[in-house]
């Protein structure tokens, strides 16, 4: 994979998702895209802010609504891979029909070569008709989530519209294949609450309230830094050997009341052995060796990458926690607004991306100018290796030493000609 696509010196992004748009005026008009900030992206599609794809700019289709999100991507490249496959099901080799036809074509080619007969009949790949309806998009989504490649990713589905969820369940009841157990469903928006999908703590009701920053793991980051601050007699819960935070890659259990610390390799080996998946290289989840609760590997890798690659972000999170603690105790520092902004900017290492016009609240009382959507290069797919796993386990990079480096980069896809499916 091109190093320009995946920067291994930066932490795992706070959020990335693929989304399905539907026109509120013409329900047959649909659009598939990817973004690290759904609320901002929806505003762009609806013309409320600068940006958005040209194909969604027609007034007879606005406003658009995000009816479905596929969350949990650990990099922009991973989200783009899934987006491209979902947009192009007749071309993606992750679709079983395409894989079967490709095998038939290869067999036929080999037979013709062996016979050396130029007039031998050819085998054409079967067309599967239009895949532009909502029904087909949901069917393809179900297929991709079960594919050998994407099924290993820590993804979850968030439905905002009850009719879309109803169509999804009707397909799930008819299809033979089942989704992997780790794929979580979040019934949000006007979807009826389902006790079989107990994700009430993750409901936001509206896409405008989606958390697209590190705020969901602020407490976890604070806890991990506190536990690793005193390196004396820290021992791995798996191998019982001593852990040296400055030398070893250590992971901390994200459960609030658990104080388990383990070597990265020790815990990943334990999780993989328990999963009993011989072809799986990166764990999806596992039971903590101390509290025995199921923990998500991607969450631990996100915290570890922040700790090792995002010193500025980590300091900002810890600073916010300190301020919140002071407020809770009734001892709020008396500083002017200008002084507070100055302190925050100093803490962030003067990080600012002054290349766009959209201002987004990151959740840390910081208004950061994010980069507007940049169109993808026409040959981006050829420069991306689609047989690579998203980067969930490599967090061995050394901490950044440049305090002025811009760490926050927000980029959406803008693949006109692929995404507008109406």
TrEMBL record:
One GO BP: double-strand break repair via homologous recombination
Keyword field: DNA damage, DNA recombination, DNA repair, Endonuclease, Hydrolase, Metal-binding, Nuclease, Nucleus, Zinc, Zinc-finger
Start and end residues of each stretch annotated as Disordered: 38-59, 110-130, 369-422
Pfam families, per the entry: GIY-YIG, SLX1_C
Compositionally skewed regions (Acidic residues) per UniProt: 370-392, 409-422
SUPFAM superfamilies the record matches: GIY-YIG endonuclease
The keyword Nuclease appears for this protein: yes
Cofactor: a divalent metal cation
Entry annotated with the keyword Ribosomal protein: no
Residue intervals of the GIY-YIG domain: 14-99
GO annotation, cellular component aspect: Slx1-Slx4 complex
PANTHER family assigned to the protein according to its UniProt record, in alphabetical order: STRUCTURE-SPECIFIC ENDONUCLEASE SUBUNIT SLX1
Name under which the protein is recorded: Structure-specific endonuclease subunit slx1
């Amino acid at each position: 994979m091109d190093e320009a696509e995946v920067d291994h010196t930066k932490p795992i992004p706070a959020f990335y998702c693929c989304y399905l748009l539907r026109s509120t005026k013409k329900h047959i008009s649909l659009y598939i895209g990817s973004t690290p900030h759904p609320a901002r992206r929806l505003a762009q599609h609806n013309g409320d802010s600068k940006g958005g794809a040209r194909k969604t700019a027609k007034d007879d289709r606005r406003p658009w609504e995000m009816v479905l999100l596929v969350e949990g991507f650990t990099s922009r490249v991973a989200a783009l891979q899934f987006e491209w496959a979902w947009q192009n099901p007749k071309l993606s080799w992750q679709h079983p029909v395409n894989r079967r036809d490709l095998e038939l074509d290869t067999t036929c080619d080999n037979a013709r070569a062996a016979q050396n007969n130029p007039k031998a009949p050819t085998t054409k790949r079967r067309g599967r008709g239009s895949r532009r309806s909502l029904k087909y998009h949901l069917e393809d989504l179900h297929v991709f989530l079960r594919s050998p490649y994407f099924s290993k990713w820590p993804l979850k589905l968030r439905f905002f519209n009850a009719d879309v969820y109803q169509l999804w369940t009707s397909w799930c009841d008819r299809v033979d294949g089942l989704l992997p157990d780790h794929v979580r469903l979040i019934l949000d928006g006007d979807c009826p609450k389902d006790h079989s999908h107990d994700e009430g703590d993750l409901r936001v009701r509206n896409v405008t309230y989606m958390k697209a920053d590190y705020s969901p793991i602020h407490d976890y980051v604070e806890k991990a830094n506190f536990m690793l601050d005193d390196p004396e007699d820290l021992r791995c819960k798996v191998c019982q050997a001593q852990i040296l935070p400055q030398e070893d890659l250590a992971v901390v259990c994200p459960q609030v009341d658990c104080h388990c610390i383990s070597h990265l390799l020790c815990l990943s080996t334990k999780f993989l052995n328990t999963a009993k998946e011989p072809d799986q290289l990166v764990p999806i989840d596992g039971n903590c060796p101390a509290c025995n609760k199921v923990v998500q590997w991607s969450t631990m890798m996100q915290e570890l990458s922040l700790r090792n690659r995002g010193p500025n972000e980590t300091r900002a999170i810890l600073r916010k926690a300190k301020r919140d603690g002071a407020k809770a105790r009734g001892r709020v520092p008396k500083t002017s607004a200008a002084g507070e902004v100055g302190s925050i900017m100093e803490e962030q290492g003067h990080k600012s991306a002054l290349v766009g016009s959209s201002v987004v609240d990151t959740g840390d009382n910081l208004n950061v100018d994010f980069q507007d959507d940049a169109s993808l290069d026409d040959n981006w797919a050829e420069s991306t290796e689609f047989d690579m796993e998203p980067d969930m386990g490599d967090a061995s990079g050394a901490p950044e030493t440049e305090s002025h480096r811009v760490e926050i980069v927000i980029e959406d896809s803008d693949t006109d000609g692929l995404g507008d499916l109406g």
